[in-house]
Amino acid sequence: MAGTDNRPVTTPAIETHGLRKAYGGTVALESLDLRVEAGEVFGFLGPNGAGKTTAVKLLLGLTRPTAGRGAVLGAPLGDLAARARIGYLPELFRYQAWLTAREVLELHASLAGVTRARRRSEIDRVLELVGLAERASGRTGGFSKGMQQRLGLAAALLGDPALVILDEPTSALDPVGRDDVRAIIREAQARGSTVLLNSHLLGEVERLCDRVAIVNRGRVVAAGPLSGLLGETAVRLRVTDLARAGDTFAAFGVPEDGGDGWVVVRGLSDDAVPALVAAIVTAGGQVHAVDPGRRSLEDLFLDLVREPVLREPLVREPPVREPGAQEPEV
Amino acid sequence: MSGRRALVIAGLTLREMVRRRVLWVLVALVVASVVLVGWGTERLVTLAREEGVEGLQVRIGVSQILILVAFMFSFVVATSAAFLAAPAIASDVETGTVHALLARPLRRAELVIGRWLGLSVVVGLYAALSALLAIGVVALVSGHVPHEPMTAVGFLTAQAIAVLTLALAFGTRLPAMAAGAITVVVFGIGWFMGVLGNLAVVFEAPSVQQAADTVRILIPTDGLWRGVIYGLEPPILLLLAAGRNVDALAANPFYAPTPPPVAFVAWSIVWILLVLLAAIALFRRREL
How far, in Å, CA of B101 to CA of A8, rounded? Predict the structure, then answer.
């Protein structure tokens, strides 16, 4: 994961200001402020119904905003020329069942304006990339969900688009397929594409993305580099036989008792963990386990999106009683 | 507006029609119907000749059979056009296929026009083939060739294209089944008002006639059907020679002494274009 503190000053791949979408009285997206820099893999997260798919549709010009503005690849939302430089894998993908995988890609290459001379080699490249080269002449109607998803990914990557928008690209894939997709996304980034990744698999986002935005109730509730969002690390170690613990830890921070023989050291950078372990061993301590203990993206996500829900009176959590409060009537 | 992208979609539509079984089932049914028509007509003509019915009478009889057969085909072709065209856009929206297509630099107008072009080729060929086969088989077994067979083929094809355009337009906003069903109902209303209009002439009911004329302009399919009848009608001289009361025939929904006026034909073309433009406008406003 690359830090983004020294981002290049270029036109952002995606930029929106107060983008809003309401269908009649139903607000699908409250106000979206988003900035995705060119060349990064950006995680776009949020619970179901947060407005992610609406946001993607607005970015692609499939639907028009009720208010606000935005630009994709420096052009207004839905701009035809910009769309030629975007690859999109929809969440609910289904390709024409009567076409072969190669024909689906030929259709998309032709619509995307990939030149006839480049088309064949480009289609071969993406088929190979997603592992469908041997099924190129198979009708997509006979494809499994996973193969359809691979095909969708191939279509999205045709012609090295400047921006690739992937809506749940691994939802139908097994662990091997997911690993393949991670490699494919990294390769797309290496070839110069910006990737907007919308996924519920937070572990995957954590491994892939440079920066993330978490959307809840139609607004961005957190955005930034992962390292910044996840906060300080709290390394947990299980150590025995350490005689002068205070002296050993002094250079690294104040150790806290984590219970069950665990010691917690806060504010330690990832790079300093091996040095701490080496110091403990040198001092004669036995290290049984080390847990980097950083807050996971999942913890952050749940904290951010659950909080407002807990305030709802309908959530059936056990009541928290104030000291001295009356017993509830049963 | 890019003609190239619209043609890509037209090609996709053609390929879809050819690869899916529904078109071939329809073609097989047409062939089966034509075989039945040929067999039945041949039997009737042979029987009539054996009974010593005059050649002229036989020819008029066969011409009426042909018009009835054409009526059946007109209904079958119109219904097929409605159910082939209604899902063309509606199903793409329902399955999400359209999202992947429209995320490409493809305008919605190009998608609608491409779909319309592809469907028009398929449905037009299907209508023309059905009419030509029916006319050909009847000519083969009875020797009766209508006086303007190509006029009949042309009007049947135009009627099918009018119906498919309407179904496509409904399909831009409604689910496929609803769009198909509503189109068939509209087609039926058009035909029924045409029949009512004929009766109104005979019974001198001007208000009914006015209503029928208005519907005929709003839904020109029945007017186009009159063109089919005219093309298949035996020449008026034949009817006079047979001593038929030509005036009384005005009430017959299967009789058309004159071709549809040029102005009506022109209006039908404009109508198809207007419905196509409405389809584009409706689809452009649709939230996907």
Answer: 33
Instruction: Sort B123 into a burial class: Cβ within 10 Å, 0-12 / 13-18 / 19+.
Output: buried
Cβ–Cβ contact B244 with A under 8 A = no
Determine the residue type at B239: L
Q: How far is CA A312 from CA A302, A315, A317, B251, in A?
A: 16, 6, 10, 72
Q: Tell me the C-alpha distance between A88 and A82, whole Å.
A: 12
On whether the CB atoms of residues A245 and A276 are closer than 8 A, the answer is no
User: Do the Cβ atoms of B103 and A98 come within 8 Å?
Assistant: no
**Of A284, A280, A262, whose CA–CA distance to A272 is shortest?**
A280
CB atoms within 10 A of CB B31: 13
Q: Which of B20, B104, B107 to mutate to test the interface with A (most CBs of A within 10 A)?
A: B104
In angstroms, the CA B221 to CA A154 distance is 45
Q: Does B284 touch chain A (CB under 8 A)?
A: no
Q: What is the mean pLDDT of chain B?
A: 89
Q: How many residues does chain B have?
A: 288
**Contacts for A200 with CB less than 8 Å, ≥ 6 apart:** A45, A168, A171
| Out of B96, B102, B103, closest to residue A94 by CB | B96
Is the Cβ pair B105, A113 closer than 8 Å?
yes
- For chain A, give the number of residues: 330
**What mean pLDDT, rounded, does chain A reach?**
83
Q: Burial, B200: exposed, middle or buried (Cβ in 10 Å; 0-12, 13-18, 19+)?
A: buried
Structure confidence by residue, pLDDT tens digits, A46-84: 888 888 889 999 999 999 999 999 999 999 999 999 999
pTM for the structure as a whole: 0.83
Cα–Cα distance list, A85 to A73, A125, B165 (Å): 8, 18, 33
Nearest CA in chain B to A78: B103
Bridge partners, A34 (sequence order): A16
Which residue is closest to A65 within chain B, CA to CA?
B287
Q: Which of A90, A112, A165 comes nearest B105 by C-beta?
A: A112
* pLDDT score, position A322: 45
Residue ranges of chain A with per-residue pLDDT less than 50: 1-5, 7, 309-330
ipTM of this predicted complex?
0.85
Amino acid at B38: G
Q: Over A74-120, what HEC string results?
A: CEECCCHHHHCCEEEECCCCCCCCCCEHHHHHHHHHHHHCCCHHHHH
Which of B9, B14, B99 to substitute to test the interface with A, most A CBs within 10 Å?
B99
Tokens in use for B117?
A: 């072009």
Q: What are the domain boundaries of chain B? A: 3-284
Q: Calculate the CA dihedral of residues A157, A159, A165, A170 and round it to 10 degrees.
A: 0
- Contact call for residues B131 and B152 (beta carbons, < 8 A): yes
Instruction: Return d(Cα A222, Cα A211) in angstroms, integer.
Output: 10
What's the distance, CA A290 to chain centroid? 27
Strand order in the sheet with A86-89: A75-76, A67-72, A14-23, A26-36, A219-225, A211-216, A41-45, A194-198, A163-167, A86-89
Q: Distance (Å) from the C-alpha of residue A91 to the closest C-alpha of chain B? A: 9
B19–A contact, CB cutoff 8 A: yes
Task: Give me the residue from B8, B95, B99 closest to A110, CB to CB.
Answer: B8
Tell me: the pLDDT tens digits for A262-276?
Answer: 888 877 777 788 888
Q: Which chain A residues have any C-beta within 8 angstroms of a chain B C-beta?
A: 23, 57, 60-63, 80-81, 83-84, 86, 88, 90, 92-96, 98-99, 103, 107-108, 110-113, 152, 155, 165
